[in-house]
Specification:
This protein is mostly beta strands. It has three domains: 75 residues, no CATH class; 287 residues, Glycosyl hydrolase domain, family 43 (Tachylectin-2, Chain A, 5 Propeller); 124 residues, Jelly Rolls (Sandwich), CATH 2.60.120. The chain is globular. 2% of the residues lie in helices and 51% in strands. It is built from two helices and 41 strands. The protein starts with a strand and ends with a strand. A hairpin with an 8-residue loop joins strand 24 and strand 25.
């Protein structure tokens, strides 16, 4: 099928129940895109769109093994609006399609840039692009066009962003640099070209709006699916450091003084850790002046130790940061001195809104020394706390949040013995202070909070942030952090809080001003 590009968006119908088809798209004989899509008929599912603004007035040819399926494709002046009434208020989610890992997270010129693994053409993994949103407050995210799309080098896998304020890479002063993995072999286009997994560079001279692929940096294939570069500047040794996932449980560290030429300085293998590495320095909050390095991987497993600019030396055993399995592939923002801000992909089941996956709330990380063992702690980013409304005390009463995301705080006054229960429709959220268990019952989510959170000899404080589709729990001075998926329209139901007579506690709640 050949049609003239008369609008900036090429609309494609998606039917989740249709068989997947492969489309090849050409402009003036040159291949510009390859799409795997469950192609539907008009009115059979939902529409997504490909940005064709660069090809206005030209003809596009679309090839498919069954061209009768292409009749629902057309150009239009606006992108589709897929309205879903239960979209989260605080958590980022894509307009349509599947998303997973956060990518390229960088703060520059007052703007937080969040890129992410995105399949615009369906609610299952595939067609990996870099989607893009930006924010000035970590709450309100403005959707932008995709910045990287699959090509003959492969699909666009995870990577990072950093500000090159001194023009070391030669792309311009204060240019944003983005290092990413081209996943060769993950699409037919790159398999035909014989490409493997490689690390690449793109740069932006317009504040992250557009990414330009560059040949200034290229790291050849090392092993299997080597991927997920994460880069930061190490002040003490005056060099940039790259952490890269290799294969199995193996990672590599590299150094560079110009952001282009990289020398390997260490390979390390940590059983049980894989993918999406990060390495960052955290303050030990209960030991003023003390700081330790944290080596992080995708599942939230981490080890604490020392780093001298060349090698990381672990102290102690691998630990798990999360109390639930929903968060994955977290990354920290570049360009936020004095704060280490993390966001993770939430592996959601719900796709009723024609999208799948959320990002966690942005959290600020720190360490706690507990009897010589360093524990990573989380607290909501200060912007989240600043958006809270007025707290209201309540106990044993019902209320309706009227569609707003809500923060609930509970503070015990003395010995923590008794039960706290929040009933939201059929969803029960309970904290059993005597047995040390936090439950979201109908989700089969159980967190053991005995040791870290509810020391019965001391007053304790927990925080539960409830949004459409997700509940986030903070306890144990931030050392207990878990996220669970909720049922639909949780903010539209009547809530009831019950506190047992044996629990001496104060409960407060407030809506978010979003």
């Amino acid at each position: 099928m050949t049609l003239k590009i008369t609008g900036p968006y090429l609309w494609l119908p998606v039917d989740k129940n249709a068989k997947e088809k492969k489309l090849h798209l050409y402009i003036e004989g040159k291949k510009v895109q390859e799409i795997d899509i469950h192609l539907g008929e008009t009115g059979s599912g939902f529409y997504t769109a490909m940005d064709t603004s660069l090809f206005m007035g030209k003809e596009i040819t679309i090839e498919c093994e069954d061209e009768t399926l292409l009749r629902g494709i057309f150009c239009y002046s606006e992108k589709p609006q897929n309205v879903y009434p239960f979209r989260p208020k605080l958590h980022f989610c894509p307009e349509t399609g599947w998303h997973n890992d956060p990518n390229g997270m960088v703060y520059a010129d007052g703007v937080y840039h969040l890129y992410y693994q995105w399949n615009p053409y369906g609610v299952a993994w595939g067609n990996m692009h870099w989607g893009h949103v930006q924010s000035t407050d970590l709450i309100h995210w403005e959707h932008k066009p995709a910045v990287l799309a699959p090509n003959e080098l492969g699909t666009m896998y995870s990577g990072c962003g950093i500000l090159d304020k001194d023009n070391l890479a030669g792309c311009g002063k204060n240019t944003l640099l983005f290092y990413y993995t081209a996943a060769g072999g993950r699409n037919e286009w790159s398999r035909e070209a014989g490409n493997l997994f490689t690390q690449r560079l793109a740069y932006s001279v317009d504040g992250g709006e557009t990414l330009i692929p560059s040949d200034k940096f290229f790291m050849e294939h090392i092993v299997n699916e080597n991927r997920d570069p994460k880069i930061f500047y190490h002040e003490e040794s005056r060099a940039y450091i790259m952490v890269l996932y290799l294969d199995g449980n193996e990672f590599a560290l590299y150094r560079s003084e110009n952001l282009l030429d990289w020398q390997e300085t260490q390979r390390l293998e940590i059983p049980g850790m894989w993918e999406c590495p990060d390495l960052f320095l955290l303050d030990v909050e209960n030991m003023p002046g003390k700081r330790k390095w944290v080596f992080w991987s995708a599942d939230g497993y981490y080890v604490v130790g020392d780093f001298d600019g060349f090698s990381f030396k672990a102290e102690g055993q691998r630990q798990m940061a999360y109390s639930t399995r929903l968060p994955y592939a977290a990354q920290t923002f570049s360009g936020t001195p004095g704060r280490v801000i993390s966001m993770a992909w939430l592996r959601m089941n719900n796709d009723r809104g024609n999208y799948r996956g959320l990002m966690s709330l942005p959290t600020e990380l720190f360490l706690i020394d507990r009897d010589g063992e360093y524990i990573v702690g989380f607290r909501p980013a200060r912007e989240i706390s600043e958006a809270e409304g007025e707290f209201r005390e309540f106990s044993g009463q019902t209320f309706n949040p009227e569609g707003e995301a809500v923060c609930i705080q509970l503070e015990t006054k003395g010995k923590a013995r008794g039960e706290w229960k929040l009933q939201i429709g059929s969803l029960a959220v309970t904290a059993d202070f005597g047995n040390g268990i936090f439950n979201i019952l109908n989700q089969d989510t159980h967190m053991d909070i005995t040791n870290a959170c509810f020391n019965s000899e001391k007053p304790q404080k927990i925080m539960v942030i409830i949004d459409q589709e997700a509940i986030e729990f903070f306890g144990g001075n931030g050392t207990i952090y878990g996220i669970a998926e909720t049922e639909e329209d949780i903010l539209g139901k009547v809530w009831e809080l019950k506190v047992s007579d044996t629990l001496d506690a104060v409960c407060r709640w407030c809506p978010y001003s979003v």
